[in-house]
Amino acid sequence: GAGDDTRAWGPPFAGTESVYFLSVNRNKKSIAVNMKDSKGAKLIRELAAVSDVFVENYIPGKLAEMGLGYEDIKKIAPHIVYCSITGYGQTGPMVQRGGYDSIAAAVSGLMHITGHEDGEPVRPGVAMTDLATGLYTYGAIMAGLLQRYKTGKGLHIDCNLLSSQVA
């Protein structure tokens, strides 16, 4: 596919690129790894072994199926601060649903208070749920690194869109 749909959000655009996408992805670097391939999964494990933090945003259980869940990574990197970002957390009736800013904003009630009083719900002009989740995730990871510094042990952090928006 085309990847992150915010690549097309606009206006405004800088040439043909979304200004929003550019603003939230400035100076980021990435690699693409096929984790379903044994070589790709091996590379992820090698990177995790020498990393401080592992962040993933898969539906709960998907990485464990590939041998890359928290329990798997913890065996090779007991120091790792492993952070899962999901739509609705690691347990509960919505656990297998994918997360998306607009859906979490609707489920949380945020869209109920936007728009006109007698009108349809309106998506906020800013991806507030994504931004709030990123902020809470940052704080949780920093706290996790502090805990690891004090205890010498890594941990699994669970952040999710719905809880972030409700908070």
Q: Could you explain how this protein is built, in words?
A:
With 167 residues, the protein is an alpha/beta fold. The protein has a domain at 53-166: Crotonobetainyl-coa:carnitine coa-transferase, domain 1 (Rossmann fold, 3-Layer(aba) Sandwich), CATH 3.40.50. It is 40% helix and 12% strand. The protein has 7 helices and 5 strands; from the N terminus they run ββααβααβααβα. It has helices at 19-24, 38-49, 62-65, 70-76, 101-108, 128-151, 161-166, and strands at residues 13-14, 17-18, 53-56, 81-86, 155-160. It has a 3-stranded parallel beta sheet with strand order 3-4-5, sandwiched between helices. The longest helix has 24 residues, at 128-151.
If you compute it from the alpha carbons, what radius of gyration comes out, rounded to the nearest whole angstrom?
18 Å
* Biggest sheet statistics: 3 strands, parallel
| CATH architecture annotation name of the domain at 53-166 | 3-Layer(aba) Sandwich
Shape: globular
Structural class of the helix and strand makeup? Answer: alpha/beta
Mean pLDDT: 91
How far is the first residue's CA from the last residue's CA?
33 Å
For CATH, the homologous superfamily of the domain at 53-166 is named as Crotonobetainyl-coa:carnitine coa-transferase, domain 1
Number of helices: 7
Low-confidence stretches at least 5 residues in length (pLDDT < 50)?
none
Order of helices and strands: EEHHEHHEHHEH
Question: In CATH, what is the class of the domain at 53-166?
Answer: Alpha Beta
> Within the CATH hierarchy, at the fold level, what is the topology of the domain at 53-166?
Rossmann fold
- Range of helix content: 40-55%
Enumerate the strands of the largest sheet in spatial order, edge to edge or round the barrel.
3-4-5
SS elements, strand count: 5
